[in-house]
Specification:
The radius of gyration is 16 Å and the shape is globular. The chain is built from 6 helices and 10 strands, in the order βββαββαβαβββαβαα. Helix 2 packs antiparallel against helix 4. The chain is of the alpha/beta class. About 25% of the residues lie in helices and about 20% in strands. The two termini are about 30 Å apart.
C-alpha cells in the first residue's frame, strides 16, 4: 500500500536489557538497523518514534518525540499515527529483528474497512506489531489523558481485524516475527538463530 507509513517505536527504557537495546549488536549491526532493513520499501516512509534522536541520527529517518511524554508504548502509537504522512500506519517495536515481510504485506492488504489490523497469538493481540488508522487517535487520546496505558485498551472503541494463528502460520509458523529482544538472554538466543 503506497500511502502506508511505517513507524518504529524506539523509545523504550531498555530496563531489562541494562543498556539501549536498539543499539545492541546482532550479527555485526545494531538491532534497530535490522528492523529498518526488514521494513524498507513497505510504505511511503519509515519514521522513528524516539526521545533520543541523536542516538539514531545515522539512520537518516524522520524522527519524532512523544507528543505526550511518559505514556509508554500507547503514547508512541499515538505519536506515530499523529505525525505519519501516510495512512494507515504500521507500528512495530524497535527490538523485533525477525519481522516477516510476507506477513506484514498480508496484514496491509487487510486494512480497508478497519481501524486496527493486529495479529493475535494464544488469544493475546500483538499491539506493537499492528496497523493503526487515524480513527484510533481520539480513542487513544482519551485513554492517555486518563493514564489508562494498556496498548489494546481502546480496541473496543474501534473497528479491529484480528489476524489469528491459522493465518499467521501461513507466513511465519515459528512466530519469529514476534520475538522481541529485551533481555541479554534473548539477544544471545537471537544470535544463535
Amino acid at each position: 500500500m503506497r500511502e502506508l507509513t511505517v513507524a518504529i517505536l524506539a523509545g523504550g527504557k531498555s530496563a531489562r536489557m541494562g543498556s539501549d537495546k536498539a543499539r545492541a549488536c546482532l550479527l555485526g549491526r545494531p538491532l534497530l538497523e535490522h528492523v529498518v532493513a526488514r521494513l524498507h520499501g513497505l510504505g511511503r516512509e519509515i519514521i522513528l518514534i524516539t526521545n533520543t534522536p541523536n542516538d539514531h541520527a545515522h539512520l537518516g529517518l524522520p524522527m519524532f518525540g512523544d507528543i505526550l511524554p511518559g505514556k509508554g508504548p500507547l503514547g508512541g502509537i499515538y505519536t506515530a499515527v499523529s505525525y505519519a504522512a501516510g495512512q494507515p500506519v504500521l507500528v512495530v517495536a524497535g527490538d523485533m529483528p525477525f519481522l516477516n515481510r510476507d506477513l506484514l504485506r498480508y496484514m496491509i492488504d487487510l486494512t480497508p474497512g478497519f481501524d486496527v489490523v493486529v495479529p493475535r497469538l494464544c488469544g493475546r493481540p500483538e499491539g506493537l506489531h499492528a496497523i493503526y488508522g487515524k480513527g484510533c487517535l481520539d480513542p487513544i487520546r482519551a485513554r492517555l489523558e486518563r493514564d489508562r496505558l494498556k496498548v489494546i485498551g481502546f480496541y473496543d472503541n474501534v473497528r479491529v481485524r484480528y489476524v489469528d494463528e491459522a493465518e499467521i502460520d501461513r507466513f511465519d509458523p515459528d512466530n519469529r516475527s514476534f520475538l522481541n529482544i529485551n533481555t541479554t538472554a534473548a539477544l544471545k538466543a537471537a544470535r544463535r538463530m
